Amino acid sequence: MTETPNPHIIDADTLTGEMRPIRRAVLSLGSNLGDRVTTLQGAVNAIADTPDVWVTSVSAVYETAPVNCPPGSDDFLNIVLLCDTTLAAHRLLERCLTVEDAFDRERGEANAPRTLDVDLIVVGDRRSDDENLRLPHPRAKERAFVLKPWYDLEPDAVLPDAGPVADLLADLGTDGVTLREDITLEIE
Ligand SMILES: Nc1ncnc2c1ncn2[C@@H]1O[C@H](COP(=O)(O)OP(=O)(O)OP(=O)(O)O)[C@@H](O)[C@H]1O
Ligand SMILES: Nc1nc2c(c(=O)[nH]1)N=C(CO)CN2
Fold first, then answer.
1. pTM above 0.90, yes or no
2. Would you give per-residue pLDDT tens digits along the chain (188 residues)?
3. 3 state DSSP class of 177
4. Distance (Å) from CA 51 to ligand 2 centroid
5. Which residues pair with 76 in a beta bridge?
6. Which helix (H) or strand (E) holds 27?
7. Where are the domains of the chain?
8. Which pLDDT belongs to residue 19?
9. Cβ–ligand 2 contact at 117 (below 6 Å)
10. Residue 129 to residues 32, 111, 132, 145: CA-CA distances in angstroms?
11. d(CA 53, CA 69)
12. Ligand 1 site, residue 67, Cβ cutoff 6 A
């Protein structure tokens, strides 16, 4: 059955400027090539410098074993950021891809070593099946390297369509996800 659009429901992404609601976004950042700490701190700064994006929390840093990566790939450092934003989800994605490029991200083989990867995990209650932007991120529920730092910041968080982050993490376990207490990233 074809659904008739409800004229009373406004898609927040169609609003402009000051009319946009503030939405909470969860971003996952990873690096397994080059100076990982400098890159992640630079990426946090760049995201925090973005107009209409406010980084509210930076997680602890985790050293994580590569998941589904080519043989011989090095460990990642992974973090999660919580942000408030009035940007439309696609604009936020564009900004994240620009930040990846600024840190010399090369796009080759799937899951190849990368200086920087920035994934949108959730953006408010926005859902998207567009191949250029899938929300909520379809693989987040399988990734302890996303869920553990997110859980630390928000123990009650829920990943839409998947369930409480705490439950997902309890099922997955945290093997291969090691806290790096010696590294602290800041919102500068
Ligand atoms: N939620 C999302 N966050 C970031 N990129 C996404 C998302 N959904 C779709 N994409 C698209 O995925 C494309 C490829 O991204 P990328 O090569 O960084 O994938 P990846 O991060 O290596 O793999 P994965 O998606 O499994 O984390 C991006 O150009 C982007 O348009
Ligand atoms: N440990 C770890 N493994 C990964 C990561 C990542 O950030 N950390 N990112 C991937 C694709 O985005 C694939 N595998």
1. yes
2. 445 666 666 666 766 666 789 999 999 999 999 999 999 999 999 999 999 999 999 999 999 999 999 999 999 999 999 999 999 999 999 999 999 999 989 888 889 999 999 999 999 999 999 999 999 999 999 999 999 999 999 999 999 999 999 999 999 999 999 999 999 999 98
3. strand
4. 28
5. 64
6. strand 23-31
7. 20-179
8. 73
9. yes
10. 28, 21, 8, 23
11. 31
12. no
Rounded distance from Cα 119 to ligand 1 centre (Å): 6
For residue 117, the CA-to-ligand 1 centroid distance in Å is 8
DSSP 142: G
Q: How many residues does this entry show for the chain?
A: 188
Q: Is 115 in the pocket of ligand 2 (CB under 6 A)?
A: no
Which tokens hold the place of 67?
Answer: 């998941």
Q: Is 20-179 in CATH node 3.30.70.560?
A: yes
C-beta of 76 in contact with ligand 2 (< 6 A): yes
The response to whether residue 62 sits with its C-beta less than 6 Å from ligand 2 reads: no
CA-to-CA distance for 159 and 15, rounded, in angstroms? 25
Take atom 6 of ligand 1 and give the residue whose Cα is closest.
133
- Rounded to whole angstroms, the maximal C-alpha distance in the chain is 56
